[in-house]
Amino acid sequence: MRSIYWFRNDLRLNDNLSLNLALAKSDAILFVYVHDIANEKNCPWGFERLGQHRRLFLSQGLAELEEKLSKSGHSLNTYVDDSVTVLADLVKKHKIDTIFCESIASYDEAKQIEGLKAQGINVNSLWQSSLFSNDQLPFDINDLPNVFTNFRKAIELSGIKPNKPVNTPEKLFNTDSITDNHLVLFNVKTIDYQKSSFPISYKDFMGGEKAGISYLKKYFNSEKPSTYKKTRNELMGINFSTKMSPWLSNGFLSSRQIFNFLEDYENKKTKNESTYWIFFELMWRDYFRFIFKKFGNNIFHKQGLKFFKAKVEHSTNNFNLWMAGETKNEFINAGMVELKETGFLSNRMRQIVASYLVNELACDWRAGAAWFESQLIDYDVYSNQCNWAYIAGCGTDPRGGRHFNIDKQREAYDPQSKYVKFWSRS
Questions:
Q1: How far apart are the first and last CA of the chain?
Q2: Going from the N-terminus, what domains does the chain have, and what CATH number goes with each?
Q3: What is the DSSP letter of 180?
Q4: Over the chain, what is the mean pLDDT?
Q5: From CA 7, how far away is CA 236, in angstroms rounded?
Q6: Deepest in the core among 4, 59, 132, 418, taking most CB within 10 A?
Q7: Of 235, 234, 230, which is closest to residue 275 (Cα–Cα)?
Q8: Is 0.85 topped by the overall pTM?
């Protein structure tokens, strides 16, 4: 069989179930990555969908993937174009039997698969981005609980465990290579990210599978996992939180790989509330993925999942001030400056600036979600959309949204104004 393996948000060779399936069934294979031209256009809110920080981090990972494939006798063919058009042309040109890829349960990505199948192209897409597989869940996806706590309890009571990560099969080295000799490099600007809590200009924090695995090893060889719960709400520095989300969101790492390291740490070093909390966060990530599978495109609607009838307004002027970090609140401004200058923001500050936009500035939560999509190096459609809906009362929060007292948040997390001073433009 002659195949295309279409890399999407799974930019790694290890623990890639869809890639393993493609290699098992293929005699010859063409490796492809398409940067869809839609990402080069402005979003409906008037700014670019893919900002410079995301672009740089992604380009770092693609360069590494190309290098790893070349060592195995293959090449990564990259394109900036319409995904369906490019892939359909490649199928004809190279007499391809099947396109293999990961399944992504989001609107744009699902439409791409539909477009290929509408042309009679055989597409084998495999769901693989969650910690637990579909068939492991103790309920049908349509019966997925609408509240996370119920989901978590059902998972824990069932006693199920994630499957072990799998290695790259030897067949990668024995499968004939098809090449289209096409490599489009991103136009990226490299700046000094020394102020960032995730400095992607530094070797240890660059995009790619190699850096991600290296970081995993260092993290779980330290004492950080045992103190995660105490440090996860800090605002600044490379040592708070796990810092795995950028590699995870681009598929440079899988959640199964992280869990495997975590389980080994608990078995060999210590198991406490902090190590459990890392697993807890991985369950949240899974939950949002399964929410997409249950509710489809509803999560993109103004009223979201419509469990709670939130009042959704929008002030363009307030939104522009928020994006620019020019609101009347210097704590909020510090967070928005950090985001714009580095492409990263602590989880605590993400919640705070989101609440401020929705509740104090009376803006549409979907505009905030779009700005995060443009800027965040760890943008993930599932977590981003669901977290914003959650804050706005359009998602799965049983309390109908979150309204943070900004003064109390600053007092709790930046009592000496170190964060505000660090990111102040004055």
A1: 62
A2: 1-128 (3.40.50.620), 131-164+208-297 (1.25.40.80), 301-422 (1.10.579.10)
A3: -
A4: 95
A5: 33
A6: 4
A7: 230
A8: yes
